[in-house]
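FORM 7B: Structural annotation worksheet

SECTION A. Query
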Amino acid sequence: MSSKRKKAPRVVGLGTGEADGAARTAETRGPHEQGCPVGALSELPNMMREAGHDPWELLESFGVTEALMSKPMTPVPLRLCGQILQAAADATGRDDLGLRLGQRATLENAGPLRLLVFNARTTGEAVESLVRYAGLWYHGMTYSLTRDRGFACLSISVDGGLPGRDHLLTWALAATVKHLEGIFPRTWRPSQVHISYRRPRTAEQYARFFRAPVLYDQPRHAVFFPAAALDERRQGSEQMLDSFLRQYMTDLEAREQPDFVSRVRHVIENLLASGECSVVRVADMFAIHRVTLHRYLREQGTTFERLLEEARRNLASRMLEQTDLPVAEIASALGYGTPTSFVRAFKRWHGVTPGAGRSRRPAIGRAASPSRAAARR
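SECTION B. Predicted structure
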């Protein structure tokens, strides 16, 4: 019997894709930690003082001291960051706290990634580096870049149901848009922004910062812009520095890659959110035939159908809890042919109908959903 290990296929066009020429195995690996540099919170003390609150009383109650904050690259659990953001939002009464924190973000807390991004030869290489390597410092946050029908979509998701999830996602999206503004020419702005929760009281602040239509009650946090913007050349790139940085980042990445099933699950979640998820589309993202995809998943003890079911169940629960979309629209977003099919599936998962499941959720902060224009991509 051959001792060679089977190699997992490459993800095409996603931030979790592998380096050119780098072979990854489909072996199962242990769970990854979820964390980020404490420097991601560096502007929070200033924001709380501006709101008339003592920041260190709150931060120290979570174990974050001034001494710790003075070492911005020190990792702290992502769950802790979410708890801190939620507590700070509650204390200041700011439901746009994540947005405001993201507006002040820099890439200083991402080590050599800042150099790689701003030394890139093209805008596309800069954005792809940002998407691909951000997870090395922000564990538990997944960045994805896809292109479809002339538009690029950069989306961000957080693994699991973390406290303060909404603030974390909005902080990450606002920070990413700010980084994109530094990559693209001054005239660049998003075409559309998607937010995965209900329209907040401070919606005008979102529109003012993003300078684009903002749609709420969406399946994911994402920013859309013309794909042609990724084809522009940038000035001042140094080839030797670029090669060194890419090799360094590739070495870091090779030590932290998720298993193949996790990558497939992530692709399913993104395609499902876009309304076009099928086994053929997922296989295409890995540049393999659907039969090969089925075989890889079978070897890992799972199936495409099982992963799709899990993604639908998780997204359905999230959309029922965090949005006011009608059940029929949620069913359509999840790829069900009829609302009845979705209701049957939901009852199989949870023993109740979607309507009954939603009525059991806390109604705090629920607001009427704005009318939603169809997203033109």
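SECTION C. Observations
The longest strand covers residues 141-148. Residues 1-32, 363-377 have pLDDT under 50 and may be disordered.

SECTION D. Sign-off
Analyst initials: ____
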